[in-house]
Design a protein that fits this description.
7 strands
Length: 282
């Protein structure tokens, strides 16, 4: 996940006989790498620095400093004009995929379930942190719940709905692969870590789980009862477990069985929209 430390600021790939460059704007080696491309292209085109400067509408000094990598923070407007004068066509792609789960965290139903899970874990003696950012610098994502008690750590993913089973698997895998660093950032060093996915106990989620039971049974082989006992009593953590919960319930048992665990009573909530309407009416 993310860029390896030794990845260069500019990488090149050939498509249909043309070279396309991919640029990392936050890399400290960017200025030098851009300078090499400009210099090589200028020489290949047969331009002097003065000629390139005239074509780009900049000074020769600008071209010289750019080629030598002397601009710590290259002016994108100037760089674009120089590259255009050499026949380059560029664009900047701004992606906010890493904010998808952050948008979900701002969702009222998601926040409702998250608060319910955090309170229940705290009652069982766990130290709990929610919405923990992942990755150095700007976060590449967030882990909904991190908790620790003695030597045991817990990763929790919260879902108000599960329309994308593959997306759920990828998100959980991402959280698990980055959890060690996230725990360390909190000063926590668990020796054993359990993974828990908590979804809203709704008729819609029941249907989504039932329709994908074979995939989910492999991805989340843990049993809700075993997860409940581990959260309460400790010991060896069970395998990754998918459970349902109803934040309105006052029952002691708050990790409810899913259709993966056999038949059970119908949920009190029909779907996500019904839960949202109930929250708004409180």
């Amino acid at each position: 996940m993310g860029d390896p430390p030794d990845k260069p600021p500019i990488t090149a790939a050939r498509y249909n006989g043309q070279v396309q460059y991919s640029v990392r704007l936050d890399d400290p080696g960017l200025a030098a790498a851009v300078g090499r491309i400009v210099r090589d292209a200028r020489v290949l085109a047969g331009y002097s620095q003065d000629q390139l400067a005239q074509r780009a509408g900049v000074t020769q000094t600008r071209v010289s400093r750019l080629e030598r990598g002397r601009s710590a923070d290259p002016d994108l407007g100037v760089v674009t004009r120089i590259l255009a004068a050499l026949g380059f066509h560029g664009s900047v792609e701004i992606s906010d995929r890493h904010l998808d789960d952050r948008r979900q965290q701002r969702d009222p139903v998601h926040a409702w379930i998250l608060g319910h899970v955090a309170r229940r874990l705290a009652r069982a003696g766990w130290r709990v942190e929610t919405e923990v950012p992942i990755g150095p610098g700007p976060p590449r994502g967030w882990i909904d719940v991190l908790a620790i008690r003695n030597d045991d750590g817990l990763i929790g993913e919260i879902k108000g709905d599960i329309p994308d089973i593959g997306g759920l698997q990828r998100q959980v895998g991402f959280c698990r692969s980055t959890a060690a660093v996230a725990f360390a950032g909190l000063g926590w060093r668990p020796r054993r870590i359990g993974t828990l996915v908590v979804a809203l106990d709704s008729a819609t989620v029941h249907g989504q789980i039932a329709a994908n039971r074979h995939v989910l049974a492999v991805a989340f082989p843990g049993v809700p009862g075993a997860m409940s006992r581990w959260i309460r009593d400790g010991g060896a953590p069970p395998p990754a477990t998918l459970v349902l919960t109803d934040p309105r319930s006052r029952r002691d048992e708050w990790l409810l069985r899913t259709p993966l665990s056999g038949r059970r009573s119908a949920p009190a909530t029909g779907d996500y929209a019904e839960a949202a309407r109930w929250l708004l009416s409180r």
